[in-house]
Design a protein that fits this description.
12 helices, 8-stranded mixed β-sheet, 336 residues, alpha/beta, 4-stranded antiparallel β-sheet
């Protein structure tokens, strides 16, 4: 991301976003008896051409954030601004007009492509629906998009089952690009792929970002993956962001105990260094988002938790240079 982009207003702003799913009881008459707090007060921003990596274990709320930002879910509370416009409460007509600017690449390349449609129809369908692409121009545009993602334009007449997982994900990327979006949510786009193919897809996404000026929210559970594509990284735990910093800072100086535990599990390709490292083993399971702990969400598994952690929720505080941490015992940077 260049200096000019860093000085410009954010393309995407999320403020105190909440997504609570109701828990009901009863068949004929349903009563609300609680809520699953999948996302519970999350704030961040994305500038044009930037990639924000969103990491955390399964159940932390990463995918829900992505779907809610794109208004595939109606948020419970908070603001979602795309290029300065709040879409959290916008009507379906306004959302439809904004939809081409924000797209999603799905996790499972096997389930996200309609097996009854040809690749050409899958890629062009949304663009034709929104009136961006005329039917007479469809063949040329589809061929161009297939070439952009490294596939033969002749593949347009084939069906999804004829392709490998990596090729299917490239088709999914081409579909997302068909509407010429500014912002793309990448929902664990390489999780279902072989390790040998993952690097190819990451490199493709980086190349497309450089050529087309795309902005990514890159969702993953593997910190070793987001390191190579993200400008900044946000670590999520049980619906909240517990730490956010630029990629280099988070990898070399994590402050939150959860981030430290995640990074301690990332292997280093040096036997001597790997042998000397201390692995932080977390005990217990991720608490239910329907009944989160009082105080800090991480207090039930944290190796340094004390009484204040069980009593008071730590705010997300900037400790210098945009390094934000939600921990009572995180120390500010010496230069801050």
């Amino acid at each position: 991301m260049d200096v000019t982009a860093a000085a410009a207003p954010p393309l995407v702003e999320v403020r105190d976003l909440k997504m609570h799913f109701p828990i009901t009881r009863g068949i004929v008459i349903q009563r609300r008896i609680g809520a699953v707090k999948a996302v519970d007060g999350v704030s961040f921003h994305l500038r044009r051409g930037e990639t924000l990596g969103l990491v955390g274990e399964s159940g932390s709320g990463k995918t829900t954030i992505g779907r809610t930002i794109l208004r595939l879910n109606q948020p419970t509370a908070g603001e979602i601004r795309i290029d300065g416009r709040d879409i959290a409460t916008a009507g379906q007509g306004d959302i439809r007009r904004l939809r081409p600017r924000m797209q999603m690449i799905f996790q499972d390349p096997y389930a996200s492509l309609n097996p009854r449609l040809t690749v050409g129809t899958i890629i062009a369908e949304a663009a034709v629906h929104h009136g961006i692409l005329k039917k007479r121009d469809r063949q040329a545009r589809v061929g161009e998009l297939l070439e952009t993602v490294g596939l033969d334009p002749a593949f347009a007449q084939r069906y999804p089952h004829e392709f490998s997982g990596g090729q299917r994900q490239r088709i999914g990327i081409a579909r997302a690009l068909a509407l010429s979006p500014d912002f793309i949510v990448c929902d664990e786009p390489i999780a279902a792929l072989d390790v040998s193919i993952q690097a190819q897809v990451i490199n493709l996404l980086k190349d497309l970002q450089g050529r087309l000026g795309l902005t990514y929210l890159f969702i993953a559970h593997d910190l070793s993956v987001v390191r190579h594509i993200s400008d900044r990284i946000a670590v999520m735990y049980l619906g909240k962001i517990v730490e956010m910093a630029d990629s280099r800072t988070l990898y070399h100086a994590p402050k939150h105990p959860y981030s430290q535990a995640l990074l301690s599990a990332v292997p280093i390709p040096d036997p001597k260094v790997e042998k000397q490292r201390h692995r932080i083993m977390l005990t217990g399971d991720l608490p239910s988002p329907a009944n989160p702990p009082k105080g800090c969400n991480f207090c039930t598994r944290c190796p340094i938790a004390e009484e204040i952690c069980r009593r008071e929720e730590p705010p997300l505080i900037d400790h210098g240079d945009g390094h934000q941490v939600a921990c009572h015992f995180a120390k500010p940077d010496a230069s801050a």
